Amino acid sequence: MIAAIAVLAFFVVLALGTVFVGMSGGARGARGTLQSQSLVARRGTAIAITAVVVGIGIAIPIWLGAANAQDHAKNAPGGLTLTADQAHGRELFARNCATCHTLRAANAVGAVGPNLDQLRPPASLVVLTIKTGLARGNGQMPAGLLTGKDARDVGDFVARVAGHG
User: Fold this and answer.
1) What sign does the dihedral 129-160-70-72 (CA atoms) show?
2) What is the maximum span of the chain, computed from C-alpha positions, in angstroms?
3) What is the DSSP code string of 39-64?
4) Which pLDDT belongs to residue 136?
5) Is 35 helix (H, G, I), strand (E, B) or coil?
6) Where are the beta strands (DSSP E) in the chain?
7) pLDDT higher at 96 or 18
8) How large a percentage of the chain has pLDDT more than 90?
């Protein structure tokens, strides 16, 4: 949406420039107007060029940045919205769990631990497994990888997003 508005703004400026050239008697007339020796014309040209540079070079990037300032960390695949704790859980999952587990919402493609998108564990099972560890299959998950609120945040995150997206 924002990219479309930026492209549209570019073409509006381009169209206005074309109209200016056309109404000034073509390229030669526009050049003559812009290069006029009168003080008013030079100031007008300087103001117009400054406005274009500021508008394109400064205002548009600031506007795009402000429009993108929404907390994208709260957005997960599949249109899910995460709480602040779940967003924190996603960060912790990426640091501590993603190398072994597959979970699309965290862009994790580990092959040692189970695929959490297929398993879709409840938060309580995730927290219990983080607390006690698990030794099955191809690897061994150490006990106490995370504790307390961090473990609960990861459990809530996995339960919320597993199988979505």
Assistant:
1) positive
2) 85
3) HHHHHHHHHHHHHHHHIIIIIHHHHH
4) 67
5) coil
6) 75-76, 80-81, 102-103, 108-109, 134-136, 139-141
7) 96
8) 22
Give all strands (DSSP E) within 20-133, no chain letters: 75-76, 80-81, 102-103, 108-109
The two tokens of residue 149 are 């609120």
Which position has the higher pLDDT, 143 or 28?
143
Torsion angle of the four alpha carbons 109, 99, 74, 118, in this order, in degrees rounded to the nearest 10: 50
Residue 76: count of CB within 10 angstroms of its CB: 20
In the predicted model, is pLDDT for residue 148 greater than 80?
A: yes
CB neighbours (10 Å) of residue 40?
A: 8
Name residue, tokens 């998108």. Answer: 117
Answer for the pair 154, 70: CB distance below 8 angstroms, yes or no. no
